[in-house]
Amino acid sequence: MSKKRGLSxxxxxxxxxxxxxxTKDVFQLKDLEKLAPKExxxxxxxxxxxxxxxxxxxxxxxxxIGTSNYYWAFPSKALHARKRKLEALNSQLSEGSQKHADLQxxxxxxxxxxxxxxxxxxxxxxxxxxxxxxxKLKAEVEKYRECDPQVVEEIHNIFAIKSWAKRKYGFExxxxxxxxxxxxxxxxxx
Length: 190
What we know:
Blueprint: H1 9-23, H2 29-40, H3 44-56, E1 61-65, E2 68-72, H4 75-111, H5 118-143, H6 149-169, H7 173-179
Antiparallel strand pairs: 1-2
């Protein structure tokens, strides 16, 4: 006792196209709604949806004449559509193959002079050593930053401005620090 499964959307589309190709005729929707269930097993309720999807994909032509829509599709049109699609795909394949070849050439070109040699390994090790040394020196310079004459001058200026603002306007030191983003641990340099 097996349940009969319904047709998939693609099966319905294929069978609908068979109606057009076998008859080489022009139909109205009502004609197809009668013919498709009898001939191809497509339920009458899904005929309109399947037909519209074929029209949207350019596989079936539709023309409104008066108050009626007429639908048709001839094998020659499908053949031409497939040929155009095949040409487009072949063109894409050709472009892709050319791009692949160009990239392979670029890779080969980039590899020239980059072979792993003893000299290259030694230079890479030396570069790494210099980079480490540079980091250490930067850290050392940062330690003595507060002794930089320019930094010392800026600190003197900040304290002079704070002192002036306290005398002139009577501001509290904590409010000045807060409003101008001066850290709490900011010390005067002698």
